[in-house]
Specification:
Helices cover about 0% and strands about 50% of the residues. It is built from no helices and 7 strands. The chain has strands spanning about 5-10, 15-20, 25, 30-35, 40-45, 50-55, 65-70. Strands 2, 3, 4, 6 and 7 form a 5-stranded antiparallel beta sheet that branches. The chain is globular.
Length: about 70
């Protein structure tokens, strides 16, 4: 499965977004938005399983979501 993920910045703080599975960051996917209104998009190939979408800016790691990829 190749989902496309978007990161849309609504404030003025730099943000990043990575995909993590079992504590390991999925290589080849790293979104960055630097200013208000900016959008970064990217596709990543994922096997069936459960992943976390995590913001990696210090102090923002609690901003995460779960992504489940069905077989």
């Amino acid at each position: 499965t190749d989902p496309t993920l978007d990161c849309d910045l609504q404030n003025t703080i730099h943000h990043t977004l990575v995909v993590v599975q079992d504590g390991t960051t999925v290589s080849g996917f790293d979104l960055h938005v630097n200013k208000k209104g900016q959008v970064d998009s990217g596709s990543v190939t994922l096997k069936a399983g459960t992943y976390e979408l995590i913001r990696t800016v210090p102090g923002h790691q609690s901003m995460k979501a779960t992504l489940t990829v069905a077989p």
